[in-house]
Amino acid sequence: KNQVEQSPQSLIILEGKNCTLQCNYTVSPFSNLRWYKQDTGRGPVSLTIMTFSENTKSNGRYTATLDADTKQSSLHITASQLSDSASYICVVSADTGGFKTIFGAGTRLFVKA
Amino acid sequence: DTEVTQTPKHLVMGMTNKKSLKCEQHMGHRAMYWYKQKAKKPPELMFVYSYEKLSINESVPSRFSPECPNSSLLNLHLHALQPEDSALYLCASSLRRPDEQYFGPGTRLTVT
After folding, report:
1. Would you call the peptide bond into A8 cis, given omega within 30 degrees of 0 as the criterion?
2. What's the pLDDT tens digit per position in A31-50?
3. How would you label B56-83 residue by residue, b for 16+ Cβ within 10 Å and e otherwise?
4. Which of A6, A84, A112, B97 has the fewest CB atoms inside 10 Å of its own CB, making it the most exposed?
5. What are the tens digits of pLDDT across the range A39-89?
6. Nearest to residue B110, comparing CAs of B14, B5, B45?
7. Is A46 in contact with B100 (Cβ distance < 8 A)?
């Protein structure tokens, strides 16, 4: 069964600290993995996209890693800011000849001053 | 222009009303999507249009009727909705499946 599991469900950190969010998936055949940031009541905004051959990708203070062997990805946020408070969603696509996108439940991040 | 726009931003409608949600993109993307998102849940795929033809309908009730009049526009026609249909409706587009999807800001729908 194609699944995407994210942990933790929620996280509270102090401004300026780093954090790492996890995504484990069982999607097959794997096509790509994306991390999105979603502010409450707004549409998701893409942070990174990685294919099978890529194991790390950065976007400013956001760095995503991918281990296709263990089917794990992480999103590392450096020097967190109050504006980083949002939900972070891991999305994995399977290329089955058709198209299947599986969303994780997201991690809700709260950055406190 | 790397933006997906959605109108209206907010919509309140009664169960007997007919309304439409609109989505527009000018990035030359040929795949467009409708998602429904309830609070604290991930988006759920409703429909996918590929090259202006409906390619995926995820068993959505007929009170939701999508329409793709051209490659830049996507509509979602609403009729006889139920209060449980209240949600954030997101539109997205991508160059081709399964490439990266660009999401619009969403329409917050409340059914009374």
Report:
1. yes
2. 899 999 999 889 999 999 99
3. beeebeeebebebeebbebbbebeebee
4. A112
5. 988 999 999 999 888 999 999 999 999 999 999 999 999 999 999 999 999
6. B14
7. yes
Helix (H, G, I), strand (E, B) or coil at A25: strand
Question: Which of B25, B37, B91 has the highest number of chain A CBs within 10 A, making it the mutation to test binding with A?
Answer: B37
Beta-carbon count within 10 A of A78 CB:
13
Q: Other C-beta atoms within 10 Å of B22: how many?
A: 16
d(CA A84, CA A86): 6
The minimal CB distance from A32 to the residues B4, B56, B98 is found for: B98
For residues A44 and A85, give the distance between their C-alpha atoms in angstroms, rounded to a whole number.
13
pLDDT (tens digit, 9 = 90+) per residue, A91-101?
A: 998 877 666 78
Distance CA A7, CA A27 (A): 17
Q: Which residues of A touch B43 (CB under 8 A)?
A: 44, 103
Q: How far apart are CA A112 and CA B26, in angstroms?
A: 38
Instruction: Name residue A11's amino acid.
Output: L
Determine the residue of chain A that is closest to B6 in CA distance. A43
**How many whole angstroms separate alpha carbon A12 and alpha carbon B7?**
34
Angstrom distance (rounded) from CA B38 to CA B7 = 18
**Residue of chain B whose alpha carbon sits nearest to that of A87:** B40
- Rounded Cα–Cα distance for residues A51 and A105 (Å): 21
